[in-house]
């Protein structure tokens, strides 16, 4: 999914200097962003004061939206570099096309994982016809320097491993949780899991104390480590946890995001993740004037123009804890 903000700002993210090395309970409120004509998203990352969680660098939550009489998601072809996109649905479908030739309909609780590597372009749209409701999350994972120029590719996994306990079904989207490992390719230690909780459930989820974590609420009423987390908000949890108490007031859907704190600092602007201001500007220029990012074939419409890069100059410098 694209960042369609026409005033996209250059942002320095990552580095371990701001990682919270102990358990915390930091509730993050979303920023509302219009995505196309009929989809509004709630942006949780990057957030004021909290830019990343492990390698997770971007989190949008959208819906549930009634799109029975609407076009639904309509995101024209746009570029990415230096990241992976993770498409995750609770309701509806999204048709993915990209410049490697991939064409795939992604359905609820199926993993759509696109690795941009050095350069890719893609589009996302609600199929015609489509389901009445659309509800999901779009996430980005920053690629570490050693892997950020890999060949672009797309993976689709409809059958994902689960961890179960009374009242809890945890679907492992990326990485590993309690011994269950996703088939999705990762390039740094991380985890993403969908947590479905039945009303009245109280349970503890095992965690890796070396990871930092956050929990996104997708639906229902739930408490995470005693903190009520409403749909469309996210609770940052810091590091140093071996388990996470969960309590469902009603049937609830959550997403657990975590990973080893990302050591490198990155420069993130629009749909690009790089390391320098110059690299970002070059990518923007090449999207507008060259074929570096390839062509998305079959999309009915024009591709997306890049906004102007602001005059601000940023330099990313890595830090080690």
CATH class: Mainly Beta
Number of DSSP strand runs: 26
CATH superfamily (homologous) name: Jelly Rolls
The outline comes out as globular
GO molecular function: metal ion binding
Organism: Streptomyces gardneri
Cofactor: Fe cation
Pfam family, one: Pirin
Key structural traits:
1 helix; 321 residues; disordered C terminus; seven-stranded antiparallel beta sheet; mainly beta; Jelly Rolls
How would you sum up this structure, described in words?
The protein is mainly beta and 321 residues long. The protein has a single domain, classed as Jelly Rolls (Sandwich). The protein is built from one helix and 26 strands. The strands form five sheets. Strands 2, 14, 15, 16, 17, 19, 22 and 24 form an eight-stranded antiparallel beta sheet that branches. A seven-stranded antiparallel beta sheet has the order 3-4-5-12-7-10-13, with no helix packed on it. Mean pLDDT is 92; it is low at 317-321. Residues 193-290 form the Pirin C-terminal domain. Its cofactor is Fe cation. It comes from Streptomyces gardneri. Fe cation binds at residues 78, 80, 122, 124.
How would the blueprint of this fold be written?
Blueprint: E1 11-14, E2 23-28, E3 31-35, E4 39-45, E5 56-66, E6 74-80, E7 83-91, E8 94-98, E9 103-106, E10 111-115, E11 120-125, E12 133-142, E13 153-157, E14 162-165, E15 168-177, E16 180-181, E17 190-197, E18 202-206, E19 212-219, E20 222-224, E21 227-229, E22 234-238, E23 243-248, E24 252-259, E25 265-269, E26 272-274, H1 277-289
Antiparallel strand pairs: 1-25, 2-22, 3-4, 4-5, 5-12, 6-11, 7-10, 7-12, 8-9, 8-11, 10-13, 14-15, 15-16, 15-17, 17-24, 18-23, 19-22, 19-24, 20-21, 20-23, 25-26
